[in-house]
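FAQ
Q: What does a multi-component entry look like?
A: The components come first, one per line:
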Amino acid sequence: MTMTVMHDDTDPNKVRYGNAGEFGALVARTQRERGGAQDVSGVRMPADLERKQPDRMWSTRRSGKQGNTLKRFPMVGFVSVAVLAFLYVPMVIVVFFSFNGGKQALLWQGFSLRWYGEVFTNGAIINATETSLLVAVIATVLSTALGVLYVLAVDHMSRAGSALASMLINASMLIPEIVLGVATMAFIRLIGLAPGFVPLVLAHTTFCIPFVVMPIRARLATIDHACFEAAEDLGASGPVTVFRVTLPLLVPGIVSGALMAFVVSMDDFMISNFLTTAGTTTLPIYIFSLIRKGVNPSVNVVASLLLLLAVVVTVTSTLLTNRKSK
Amino acid sequence: MSAADRKTGTRREPADVPAAKTSAWSRWFGSSHAVKPGMLNRLYSLPSIIIGLLFTLGPIGVIIAFSFMSRPDMGGGVVFRFSTDAYEKLLFRHDFFGNRSFDARYLQVFGTSLWQALLTTVICVALAFPIALWMSMKSAKIQQILVLLVTIPFWTNLLVRTYAWMLILNENGPINWALRLLGIGSQQMLYTSFASVIGLIYTFLPFAILPMYSALSGFDFRLVEAAYDLGAHKLTVMRRVIFRAAMPGVMSGIALCFIPAFGSYVQPVLLGGGRVLMVGNLIASQFAEARNWPFGAALSTVILAVTLLGALVASVLGGRASRKAGE
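Then the predicted structure of the entire assembly, as C-alpha cells:
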C-alpha cells in the first residue's frame, strides 16, 4: 500500500502514513508517469522530515493522554480533590458516628448498632417517617402522572403558550423556598382550608412536577420520532401509540423523574414547615426539632439512612439516564 | 387542509377547531400544527397548569396582596384594608408619639443576607471552576462517575448536610479534638456566622459545579492548543479561553447559588444559632411568633423581587456570555 490520501470522513486514527521511503517512491512514480524528470534518484526528502512522525489529530481532545502537559493546569487537580473531600468527609463523619455505642453523639465509645435499634423502635420517628413516606408516595404518583401528560402535551402548544406554561411549571424551583412556604400557607388559609394532609400533598405535588418534567423531556428529545410515525402508519390509533410506543420508550425518564420527585418530597423542610399540624409531622420537621437543640445520637442514624436513600436514588437514576436508548 | 391535518384530523379534539378560526386567539395560543403521532393534545397539560396556577402563582399573588394590607389589632392574619405600613416598617420606626424616624435594623438584616449570600456565591464559583475543568478533562467513563459523586450531595437531605457540619464544628467535634491535640485549645465555631457561611457553601457547591461542568464538558481542547501555539501562558489560556467558555455555566452557577442562599433559613438557624439573622428567618418569625403577616408578606415580596431581578440579570448575562463563547 502506498500513501493513503486522507479524506475528511476518514477516521484519523486509522490512517496509515507511509514512511519517507514510500513517499519518495510515490513522488518518483508520479514523476515517471507524467513523463517529466529523468533523474528519479535525485528526489529526496528534506533531512528534518526523514524521521518526522505524523501528528495525531485530536490528541488532546477529551482523552487524558499521559505526557500531555498542555492540559495540566496549576492547582486544578489539587483543588478538585480537596473539593471532593470537602463534599464527602462530613458525610463520612456522620455515618461513622452513627455506629457509636455511647450516649453522647460525639464521644466515641466503641462500635455498636445500639442507636439503629433505638431509632427503629422510636415511635415518634416511625410516625414521622410514615407520614413522610405517605406524602412522598402520593406526591410522586400525582406529579409523575401530571408531568408525563404535560411533557406529551407541551409539544402541541403554541410558542407563547409553551413558554408561559414552562415558566409557570418551573417557577416553584426559582422562588425562594421560604417565600413559597409562607405564601402557600397564607393562600391555604385564604381559601378556607386548614393546614394539614391534603394541602401538604398538593404543595408537594406542585414543587415535584418540574423535577419530573426535566428527565422526561430529556428522554423524549433522544427518541426518534419516526417510531411514532411508524406506529401510526401501521394503523395504531393515537391513544394506542401513546400507550404502547411513547410511554414504554419514556420509561427510563419517567422512573428517574419519579425517583427525583420522591427524594425532593422526602427532603422538603421549608414548605412543609408551614403546612403541617401536630398530626402530620414529616420526618424533616421532626429532625429539625431534634437538632435545633444540638447534636443527638439518634439523628446520626436517621441522617445516615437518609444519606443511603440519596445514594441509592442517585445511582439508580444515573444508570437509567446513561443507559443507551435501544 | 394539509396532509398532516388530514392524517390526524379525525382524532382532533373538538375544542381545537374554534381555536384555529379566531385569529388573535390563535396567534397567541393556537397551535400551528396538528397533534403529532405519539404525543397528546395540549388540553392534557391543563392539570399541571391548574395546579401550578393554584399552588405557585396563587400563593405569590396572595402574598403580594397581603403586603399591601393592614394587620388586625390582635393575632395573625390580615384585614382587607389598603395600607403601605408594612413597607414603611422596613425603613422607618414610629415612636409612641407617632414621630417617624429612620430605622436601619431591617436593612441590616438584608445586609447580612446579601453579605452571606455573596460570600457563599464567590467561594462556590471559585471552588467549582477548577473541579469543573478537571472533570471535563477526564475520560468519558470517569466523567460519569465524577458527575455522580457531585450529584449525590445535591440529592442528600438539606438537614442531613447541615447536621453534618453541626457535628464537625461542635465543641466536642473532630476539629476541636484536633485543635486540643495540637495544644491550641478548642474554639467556638458552631453558632457563628462563619459556621453559617460554611453550611451555605457546603449546600450550594454542587449547584455551582454542575452547570459549569456542563458548559465545559463539550469544550474543544484544541482551542487550548491553539492558544498555546499563539504564545499564550497557562494562566492566560485559563482566563481568556477556558473561563470564557465556562462563562454561561458560571452565570447560571451564580444564580443557582445566590438566589437560594439569599433566602436561606435552615443554615443560619442551625449553624448560626441566634447570631445570624437573615431575611428568611425574619420572614419565618413574622408568620410564626411575632405574627405581623403584612410585614412578613412585604419582606417576602422584597426578596421575591431581588430573586427575580437576580435571575433576570443572570439569564441576560448568561445569554451574552454564551453568544461570546460561541464566537
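Q: Is there any commentary attached?
A: Sometimes. For this entry: DSSP finds twelve helices and no strands in chain A.
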